[in-house]
Write a structure and sequence with these properties.
The chain has 68 residues and is mostly helical. The chain is built from 3 helices and no strands. It is globular.
Length: 68
């Protein structure tokens, strides 16, 4: 699932949207995919944090998220 989330975020980044539009696109395209998987499978906190880090890592690689 992490690879699919990363793939979807990279695909959205390649569309060269501005920051607000990219976040809206992630909320519309990536979050529902992850949510449907979460409803079917049981994830622990570590796995959810890894998914969060995948998305944040992709955004940081494009300088779209501060180094927090």
């Amino acid at each position: 699932m992490k690879s699919e989330v990363a793939k979807r975020v990279k695909l959205l980044e390649s569309t060269e949207r501005n920051g607000a539009n990219l976040i809206s696109a992630i909320n519309a395209e990536v979050i529902p995919f992850a949510a449907s998987s979460i409803n079917v499978c049981t994830f622990n906190n570590r796995e959810l944090n890894e998914l969060d880090q995948v998305v944040k890592g992709e955004l940081r690689s494009k300088n779209m998220l501060g180094n927090q």
